[in-house]
């Protein structure tokens, strides 16, 4: 029983959790706090949790009725916020509207593969239409959005979902890009026909004219528990590309790459203004880190970050194990959604639902990136060679860590 949603984003229902993934019947921690605290207390708590953008609370955006109708009809969470920048004398505001989509799969994983893929496409149509109707300039989807996240199973049959860069999934999104004058970031499982049909975890960057601007392949592959994705694809070979689009310079740090500070740094050094982190991750493994890492990256590198995580629990026909002594299981766990935006001034948006499909939109003034670089001066500039020297030495077989030992530790005890 789903129950009725209340004005605070909760679901009225007896028994605590209304759906798998809710927090005591609420869509997110933020909604729960809003319903539980006095307004003046909640205002202070929001300041601590979300920070302040240009000295004030993050503003909301009024969206067109046509988009909100789609949200209600197709039951997806729909939120929108505005990150501002200070007014400058020599530059006009550089405004861009960005969207993130999180979603669950539509059919059981036992269904024919083509049916599963087409069903997900049909599910996303109204969400993409809502983004287009809202004037979104750049839209990013979740990791491997066109398939179940089957990489935990280690079964090779799921490789059938892999497709070329210009395959069916890209063609499906190219129509939307042309229709809405929108750049779309589409993370897929790629089959590289030019290099022995090698498989990669890839983000395709589709331009606002429907053209393919380029691609980026996932740099870091997890090998922990169920996340042994090297069974399917290799570490990427595209480096840290930044794509200059009609609406700004963007990059894609796919999923596990968010745990690597140098990965974030490299996109910043190449000039990124917005970095997307399309992911597929579950609660026990990563949720304590989820609100922190991308926000830290936005602060440290003076750019915006859009973090996307899929939703729901995906059960597979054949149980599998993680090599950690736990009993075999048929699902990977709960993908907890919670997609959100982070800004270079340490402010962030509330997150989408933990258990519902969702579209979150944000207006951004990209001038904020340079303003924060000037204000905080985090850049190392000439000190980069200090780290380059360390890394060069570290890679040598005879590397010895630079450790200064307390002389007292070397004395023989009396």
From TrEMBL:
UniProt cross-references to PROSITE patterns, sorted A to Z: CN_HYDROLASE (PS50263)
Gene3D superfamilies linked to this entry: Carbon-nitrogen hydrolase (3.60.110.10)
Keywords: Hydrolase
Pathway where it operates: Amino-acid biosynthesis; beta-alanine biosynthesis
Entry keyword annotation includes Hydrolase: yes
GO biological process, one term: beta-alanine biosynthetic process via 3-ureidopropionate
GO molecular function: beta-ureidopropionase activity
Broad enzyme group: hydrolase
Top-rank taxon: Eukaryota
Reaction(s) this enzyme catalyzes, per UniProt: 3-(carbamoylamino)-2-methylpropanoate + H2O + 2 H(+) = (R)-3-amino-2-methylpropanoate + NH4(+) + CO2; 3-(carbamoylamino)propanoate + H2O + 2 H(+) = beta-alanine + NH4(+) + CO2
InterPro entries from the UniProt entry: Aliph_Amidase/BUP (IPR050345), C-N_Hydrolase (IPR003010), C-N_Hydrolase_sf (IPR036526)
Record has Endoplasmic reticulum as a keyword: no
Domain (CN hydrolase): residue spans on this chain: 96-366
Protein family (similarity comment): Belongs to the carbon-nitrogen hydrolase superfamily. BUP family.
Name of protein: Beta-ureidopropionase
Organism: Aristolochia fimbriata (White veined hardy Dutchman's pipe vine)
Upper classification of the organism: Eukaryota, Viridiplantae, Streptophyta, Embryophyta, Tracheophyta
